[in-house]
Write the structure tokens for this entry.
Amino acid sequence: MSSESDGSGTEFGRLVILSGPSGAGKSTVLRQLLRECELPLTLSVSATTRAPRAGETEGKDYFFLTDQEFDQRRRAGEFLEYKEVFGLGRWYGTLRSQVASGLKQGKWVILEIDVQGALAVLEKQEFDPITIFIHPGGMDELEYRLRARETETEEVILARLETAASEMRYLPHYQHEVINGVVDETVAEICQILKEQKEKHPCSKS
């Protein structure tokens, strides 16, 4: 892919999709990756219809939309992916405009989304995403980690394990597989993957 820019000398960034089952340690890895990787990484801000929680800021934590606003944007095709969570009538989605804006500024925009969201983005064939699937190495290890939290009921744990088993089947759809054993090593591995992609493709046209 040849080098592209927006005409102002700023190279376009890249879209990075990170998925993995609950309990894989994605949030911990992401926080450290954003701090330590030298690339201009930024986490995409999702839109949601749920109410803001104490301390949350519009445009930083989420874009808080009414049900009507979300539905209008969904019908207008403004979302790269969206979903209703746990059947509670709370919707979450990734706005195409937010991704495009970040890429145009030269940022590497990270989407932390589930496999269904990732497939929805890939089906649209936009932004040439780098896809990474992170997991703890197997279902036994995943179950151990979920139980070690001691924060969820047996029913919730079993439901998460069932979902995780389904998600693991989508691993072949991703370009890169990362096993999260030691967080420092996982962060270094993901950062190296992204650096290698930058070397292969200096930038991507949004």
In short: The first helix runs from residue 26 to 36. The helical segments are 26-36, 67-75, 96-104, 115-124, 139-149, 154-168, 183-200. Residues 121 and 189 are 24 Å apart (CA to CA). The chain has a mean pLDDT of 91.
